[in-house]
Amino acid sequence: MLVRALFQMNYPAAKYAALYLKRKHKIISDILDVAAGSGVWSIAIAEQFKSAKVSALDFSGILNITREYVNKFRMNDRYKYIERDLRNIDFGRECYDLVILGHICHSEGRIHAKQLIEKSFRSLKDGSSLLIAEFLPNNKKPGL
User: Fold this and answer.
1) Residue 102 confidence (pLDDT) above 70
2) 96: which strand partners?
3) Which of 14, 21, 24, 65 has the most CB atoms lying inside 10 A of its own CB?
4) Residue 51's pLDDT is what?
5) pTM of the shown model
6) Which residues are CB-neighbours of 47 under 8 A, at least 6 positions away?
């Protein structure tokens, strides 16, 4: 399944992002992992921030895979699961130290991605971070 394959591909980048965040923030306590998939981004970050609690948001079937990976990394007590459609949930106001959008914006299209980023930003505490991991095409490269 694609979600499992993406873990291996994204884990090195997620670990790098986690190290960057560790230099920027002394403490990250509350994380929202939107469209969590395998949980690769939040797992790597939770490895660096040992007291962080993670809310993993995704569809029910996908969260079963998230749970598998969280279990492998022995982080069960640090995760809670939100089984919802990301388009139909309010993330709240000023609740999180970090919101993760790992490779979801491109599949949402321009309008929904903009809405997703706006509500993610609203849910951040003052001085917190929004992590967006995406593949961006180089439209100026010959042959594209």
Assistant:
1) yes
2) 124
3) 14
4) 96
5) 0.92
6) 15, 18, 73
